[in-house]
Design goal:
The protein is an alpha+beta fold and 1129 residues long. The chain has a 5-stranded mixed β-sheet with strand order 10-12-13-14-15, with helices on both faces. A 4-stranded antiparallel β-sheet has the order 1-2-3-4. Strand 13 and strand 14 form a beta hairpin. Helix 3 crosses helix 15 and helix 4 packs antiparallel against helix 5. It is elongated and about 240 Å long.
Length: 1129
């Protein structure tokens, strides 16, 4: 809690020696102490007072500020109080203080002179006694000198022995310290080795556990595979047992199929050879039959003609009969010709149908063959997909095993990372740890690329031996957050303040300007920053933290470089020498090393991130593999559907082929029938034509009783020809029938037996090749199971190899764990032994220290004894140096015996005589100085008394003169005087007082005032006899008189006209106006007279909350305000 008041002075006339146009003076008031400032710079109270004194604000005349009560106090003041005021104005306090101090010093001087005189009397008497003791003392001193020489020789001999023993102990201690340092280094190295071994054991245990889990899973999977293999082997055995006949039946069927194919080929070849002969024979038979029919028709016509000769009596009857027969035959011939044309048309139409059916049959057979090929292709694709599915499944199992292993590894890495982070967080305060975690989250959440993280993440120590030096040099700066700019730091800090998450220190690279002294170019002082590896863009941050520090071999070298180069230095053990003079160091626990903790966090974070990435990759691979397996399953389903569709289509094509074969057979039979009908019709028409021709020829001949000779001859020749042709016909028919029988037999065998058997065998073979048709006894089913068994055997072999490898790895880990435990136990035993050695060394060191302390005590005692011997003669350092110790002891014994008779001698007579002589001379000089000092003080007191008296009289005269002048201006008709009262003649007139030139300091008793308000010649009245207003006017006149003695640059009057009459207020206002040309007057008033002569006006106003404010107002507003106040009163 504090308040302040401030004054601004116009210094345009350079009254204040500051050189500024304005002077600002402020006083701040606090609970415990006040503070001052000049021109907004801190200053002491003495400085402020001196500055005010130099500007004319006299401390001895505080009447340039006149509050309300001071006029009243001055009005009611007594005479001695006005005298005290006069002394204060005259500045006599200084004289009084110096006079009192001088009198005190003179009293002390008199006391010292009295004491010195007493001491001088005692010393004179003592010197007389010591004169008598000096002769006896001389003889004693000769003996004593001999004794001291002998004792010095003994003490010096002992001192040399003690020094040699100390040097030997110090040498042993140095060797022990060196050995202890080596053991400590070994101890620290073994501590690190123990830590590394414990980490390795932990890693091996975790690997062993992970391997055990993986091995158990693999063993369980292997057991399942073996069980599945056993089941498959049983199934395959059953299949083989069930297919003992069926397995060979396929071979038999295939062999039979081959035989049937060969027979079909053979029969078709025979049929192909037979068909041309049969066709030829049939053509010959048809031709012969036609010739036979023609001859038979001619012969029948001749026989009919011969019969008609006897049947008809007349030609007309015969002709009528013939014409009737011709007509019938023409009608019949027309019918037969129409039938012939119809048969011929049907035959012509049937033959392309046969070719078309042959084409359809060929197309169906091609489609069936394509279906078989398609089935084989689909089967092969299905087999490949099954193999691929099996391979993917095995790979997925491997990935599952690896994923399980990685989950264990990632879990351990995450746990170790948390442990390392907790250990590192334990090396910093809670707020800093919370802040660093918050910075990481904020940077990741808002994507601040300029946040580079804490300093410890940005570097690596090139050599581990510098870890302690780096850690102790950086200190808490290791946890400072490096950012690119202060703007980035502000953004992160705003978010942290909103979320209230911890506290961190930022290092904005744009604001860092490290100024480092040049490093020494020497091998025994290397810059610490050169031992760090970091990104060059963080150069400023590392220069700021490490740039001023160099690494030295030991503290001596470090201290030397601090003095010579003004840098900070540190040793490898962490002992630090600051350029400001501070020396720090001591034991540093390597197990609590921040650098090692940072390395551990960094290593585990890297391992966790790598293992986590690998685990995510494996999970992604598993997902992709499952997608591939799903895709393969889909393809297998699609292929299965396509196989079913192909089989159904093939079955439909086979039914269609059979139908077409039956249609071909029917069409072939029909064509054969049509061809036969056509031949018969043609033969019949030929016979009819012959008959008609005979009938017509017979019509042209007359009716005879018999045949002509030609006709008889023709009958005979035709009879022979018919007979001959009948025989030929029989031969041809027999040959044709024989060929036709062979042809029909071949066709029946091909169509009814061989080709049907071939289709049956083909169906069986195809059935053997399709294990999914429900025929578990098929060879392909056995092949599928065998293929599955081979895949399973392969998986079992792989898993067995993996299990054996894991067994071997487990054995190796067990061996390694045993070796690590043995090594750890060995190192721990060494550490235990070292601990015992250190304890023994500590006890030895304590003994060394005790012995050294004892020897140092003896050394100090010897030195003290040598010092006690006093000043030794020159011979003491050479006389007995080479004497043997026993002879020295004997001589010393003899000398001590001789000294016994001087037991009563004052052994310090010479010393005492010399001391007393010196003291006497010093006291005499001191007394002389004191006498001179007393004389000077007496003269000073007289001078001070005289100056004080002169100052009082001079000030009184000036104030009295000013009082008369001021009173005359204020009361032109009156007169006022100041009268000083003396102790000697208090009742004398003032004129007598003025004539007195010499007086003492205590001669004045008071100052009285006599005034007259209506006459310049009256005696006047004392101030006690005046009215209140007159007393106030006299008091104001006194104030103005004092102010004229010591003018000030400005005056502050607070309602000085409150008790004055109106005429006197006007007079006071006029006087202030006349004095305002040389000074500034600030007055407060509620009277109108003061406003008439004022230059500027300020009103103090209050608002509704009673808070005051000041503002400039006009004279009219001021007059109106004063009038309102007067009316209110």
């Amino acid at each position: 809690m504090s308040a302040y008041v401030e004054i601004v002075f116009d210094n345009s006339d350079n009254r204040f020696p500051t050189g500024h146009e304005e002077v600002i003076l402020r006083r701040t008031i606090g609970l415990k102490k006040d503070e001052y400032s000049l021109d907004k710079k801190s200053a002491s109270k003495a400085d402020v007072m001196n500055l005010l004194e130099s500007a004319g604000f006299s401390k001895s005349n505080p009447y340039y500020i006149v509050p309300q009560g001071r006029i009243t106090a001055l009005t009611n003041a007594k005479d001695h109080e006005r005298l005290a005021l006069l002394k204060e104005v005259a500045g006599t306090k200084v004289y009084e203080q110096r006079r009192a101090e001088s009198l005190r010093i003179m009293a002390e001087t008199d006391a010292k002179r009295t004491k010195i005189n007493e001491l001088l009397d005692y010393i004179e008497s003592r010197l007389t006694e010591l004169e008598e003791e000096k002769e006896e003392l001389k003889e004693f001193q000769d003996k004593d000198k001999e004794r001291r020489c002998l004792e010095y020789a003994l003490y010096q001999r002992e001192l040399e022995e003690v020094g040699e023993a100390l040097d030997e102990i110090e040498e042993d201690r140095r060797a022990d310290v060196h050995g202890a340092n080596l053991r400590r280094e070994k101890f620290n190295e073994r501590e690190q080795e123990i830590s590394d071994l414990e980490k390795a054991i932990s890693e091996a245990k975790h690997s062993q556990q992970t391997l055990k889990i993986t091995r158990d899973d693999t063993q369980a999977e292997l057991t399942d595979f073996v069980r599945t293999r056993t089941e498959l082997e049983c199934t395959i055995a059953d299949l083989r047992a069930a297919n003992a006949n069926a397995g060979g039946k396929r071979e038999e069927i295939e062999m039979e199929f081959a035989r049937i194919e060969a027979k079909i080929f053979e029969k078709e070849a025979t049929l192909d050879q037979l068909l041309p002969e049969w066709t030829k024979q049939r053509t010959l038979e048809a031709t012969e039959k036609r010739s036979l029919d023609e001859a038979s028709a001619q012969l029948a016509a001749l026989f009919a003609k011969q019969g008609r000769t006897t049947k008809f009596r007349t030609k007309s009857e015969r002709d009528a009969y013939l014409k009737h027969e011709i007509g019938l035959m023409d009608e019949y011939r027309k019918t037969q010709r129409a039938a012939l044309r119809t048969t011929h048309t049907e035959l012509e139409a049937a033959r392309p149908g046969l070719a078309e059916i042959d084409g359809q049959i060929a197309e169906v057979h091609n489609k069936i063959e394509d279906g078989r090929k398609r089935v084989r292709v689909l089967t092969e694709q299905s087999t490949r997909l099954k193999d691929q599915h099996s391979e993917f499944t095995e790979r997925r199992k491997d990935l599952w095993r690896e994923d399980t292993k990685l989950e264990s590894i990632v879990g351990r890495a995450q746990e170790e990372l948390r442990t390392a982070e907790r250990l590192l967080a334990g090396m910093m305060d809670k707020d800093t740890g919370t802040g660093l975690r918050a910075v990481d989250k904020i940077s990741e959440r808002h994507g601040f690329e300029g946040v580079y993280g804490p300093l410890y993440r940005l570097f690596e120590v090139t050599d581990p031996k510098f870890n302690i030096a780096v850690e102790l040099t950086a200190g808490n700066s290791l946890f400072h957050v490096v950012v690119d700019t202060d703007e980035t730091a502000s953004k992160v800090l705003d978010i942290m303040m909103k979320e209230k998450t911890g506290r961190v220190t930022f290092m904005p690279l744009n604001r860092l300007k490290p100024k480092n002294p040049p490093a020494p170019n020497a091998q025994d002082a290397e810059p610490l920053i050169n031992k760090l590896r970091f990104d060059p863009k963080f150069e400023k941050a590392f220069q700021q933290v490490f740039g001023k520090t160099c690494v030295c071999r030991d503290l001596t070298i470090a201290a030397a470089y601090v003095k010579s180069h003004g840098i900070n230095t540190i040793t490898l053990d962490g002992d630090k020498v600051d350029r400001k003079g501070a020396l720090t160091g001591g034991y540093h626990d390597v197990r609590r090393s921040r650098i090692e903790a940072i390395k551990s966090v960094t290593a585990w974070r890297s391992k966790f991130e790598a293992d986590d990435k690998r685990s995510k990759d494996v999970k992604m691979s598993i997902t992709q593999l499952e997608q591939e397996i799903t895709r393969v399953n889909g393809q297998m389903t699609v292929l299965a559907g396509q196989q079913n569709q192909t089989k159904e289509s093939r079955e439909r094509l086979m039914d269609e082929g059979n139908q077409l074969t039956r249609e071909k057979e029917k069409l072939t039979q029909r064509i054969a029938a049509l061809e036969a009908d056509l031949a018969e019709l043609e033969t019949e028409l030929t016979g009819l034509d012959t008959k008609v021709a005979g009938y017509k020829a017979e019509l042209a001949t007359p009716l005879a009783k018999g045949l002509t000779a030609n006709e008889e001859g023709l009958i005979a020749s035709l009879g022979k020809e018919v007979e001959k042709r009948q025989k030929s016909m029989v031969e041809l028919s027999r040959a044709k029938n024989q060929l036709e029988g062979q042809k029909n037999q071949l066709e029946i065998e091909l169509n009814e037996r061989l080709r049907r058997r071939r289709e049956e065998l083909q169906g069986k073979i195809e059935a053997f090749g399709d294990p999914e048709d429900g025929d578990e006894m098929s060879a392909d089913a056995l092949e599928a199971k065998s293929r599955e068994l081979r895949s399973l055997n392969k998986s079992i072999t792989t898993l067995t190899a993996k299990t054996q490898a894991m067994e071997k790895e487990g054995d190796d880990l067990t061996v390694k764990l045993q070796e690590l435990r043995a090594s750890l136990e060995k190192v721990q035993n060494q550490q235990t032994e070292d601990s015992r050695t250190i304890n023994r060394q500590q006890k030895t060191t304590e003994r060394y220290l005790a012995k050294r302390q004892m020897l140092l005590g003896r050394k100090d005692e010897c030195n003290r004894n040598i010092r006690d011997l006093g000043v030794l003669p020159e011979e003491a350092f050479e006389k007995y140096i080479s004497e043997k110790l026993d002879r020295l002891v004997k001589k010393l014994h003899t000398v001590n015996e001789g000294l016994k008779k001087f037991a009563h001698v004052n052994k310090k007579a010479f010393e005492q005589y010399n001391n007393f002589t010196k003291q006497r001379d010093q006291l005499l000089n001191r007394r002389e100085d004191l006498d001179k000092s007393a004389t000077s003080i007496e003269e000073l007191v007289e001078v001070l008394d005289q100056r004080k008296d002169e100052a009082i009289e001079r000030t009184f005269k000036q104030v009295a003169s000013n009082f008369e002048e001021v009173f005359e201006k204020l009361v032109p008709a009156g007169r006022g005087r100041l009268i000083i009262q003396r102790r000697i003649d208090q009742d004398e007139e003032e004129e007598d007082v003025e004539e007195t030139q010499q007086s003492t300091v205590d001669n004045y008793t008071g100052v009285s005032i006599k005034v007259s308000f209506n006459s310049k010649v009256d005696e006047g009245l004392r101030i006690q006899q005046l009215s209140g207003g007159q007393k106030s006017l006299v008091a104001l006149a006194t104030v103005f008189a004092i102010q004229k003695c010591d003018p000030a640059p400005f005056y502050l009057f607070d309602e000085i006209d409150a008790n004055l009459d109106a005429q006197y207020r006007t007079a006071v206002a006029s006087m202030i106006q006349s004095l305002a040309s040389t000074a500034q007057f600030i007055t407060t008033t509620f009277r109108p007279e003061m406003l008439v002569t004022a230059d500027k006006f300020y009103g103090v106003l209050f608002n509704n909350q009673k808070v005051s404010s000041i503002r400039a107002i006009k004279r009219e507003e001021a007059m109106e305000f004063v009038d309102q106040e007067a009316q209110a009163q």
